[in-house]
Amino acid sequence: MKKIIYTFLILLNSSFFQAQVIGKELTEAEKILKAQAADTLDGWKAGGLFGANLSQASFTNWSAGGENSIAVNSLMSVFANYKKGKSSWDNTLLLAYGLLKQGEGGTRKTDDKIDFMSKYGYKASERWFYAGLINFKTQFYEGYNYPDDSTKISNFLTPAYGLISIGMDYKPHSNFTLFLSPFTARLTIVNDQSLANIGAFGVTAAEYDDSGVLTKKGENFRAEYGAYVRMMYKKDIMENINLETRVDFFSNYSDEPTHVDVNWEVLLGFKVNKFISATLSTQLIYDHDTKLALDRNGDGINEGSGPRTQFKEILGIGLSYKF
């Protein structure tokens, strides 16, 4: 009996020792995996905001009057930034789309945006970086001159703006950047030939003979070279309120450089809880090459076309998730 007990104790001790060794090996393996993961993500910071908002109204025998309506708006803003040593690389992507159906009318677009930016910088001093930037903007789907839903005024890649810029980037802290460039190339794309033929968004229009027969198609591209300034600020300005704003300025050296194109966007996020929040977005655009109908007196009479200040505002309450 004693021999059996002695043998059992030896086996138990041996098993315990082996378990300790295996446990140490697993612990070391976990440390190696964690270290590899940390090395892979070292220097990266990523996140974003997603929102989907739905509004609906229905009327039945309503004495005050009204029209049935349903609207949906979605927004996604994400970023992935890298900073290590003297290198800094910022990437942002903004996607937005919205639809509205009111009464017996057709579905109308209320928002449509694709905006990608990537900027690389190499540290020159404490707050300044040598930097290069690329930016691409367009929309998902065609748009019309509502309430006229037969006159198309935009489409996918119509317009689209591609920009390449080299300059200096000022970054005093992680919430603010100011990019300055005297060397910038901007390409305007009008892929829809019907809009290119009328010279939309500043491209060269089509040519016709005296009988109205098309002799030369409108150009699909317009290249510009000039100076560019981009400023971006992002911060939690109050508890559960996040502000993100960016503004671009571009001046074409060869064609009326005093006419500066402006694009200013503001996004406010209001958090109610983990999944419910509100978003308020605004966008102001002035592009000297985009000609819009002029109605100076507000009487509905078209007085020609010309550049005008454009403004858009969208408020939504619904499902939202910040990550």
Quick overview:
This protein has 323 residues and is mostly beta strands. Helices cover 14% and strands 56% of the residues.
The count of DSSP E runs of length 2 or more, i.e. the number of strands, is 18
Tell me roughly what share of residues is in helical segments.
10-25%
The tally of structural domains comes to 2
- The number of helical elements comes to 2
**Which structural class fits the helix and strand makeup?**
mainly beta
Low-confidence stretches: 1-12, 14-26
What's the gyration radius in Å? 29 Å
The percent range for strand residues is over 45%
The major pleated sheet works out as:
12 strands, antiparallel, barrel
How would you sum up the global shape? flat
Spatial order of the strands forming the largest sheet:
1-2-3-4-5-8-9-12-13-14-15-18
Straight-line distance between termini? 65 Å
Global mean pLDDT: 85
Task: Walk me through the structure.
The chain is flat, with a radius of gyration of 29 Å. It folds into two domains: 1-42; 112-322, no CATH class. The model is unreliable at 1-12 and 14-26 (pLDDT under 50). It has helices spanning 2-41, 193-197; strands at residues 44-57, 69-84, 87-102, 107-123, 128-138, 143-144, 152-154, 160-173, 176-189, 207-208, 214-216, 221-238, 241-252, 261-271, 276-286, 292-293, 305-306, 310-322. The protein has a twelve-stranded antiparallel beta barrel. The protein has a two-stranded antiparallel sheet with strand order 6-7. A two-stranded antiparallel sheet has the order 10-11. With 323 residues, the chain is mainly beta. The chain has two helices and 18 strands.
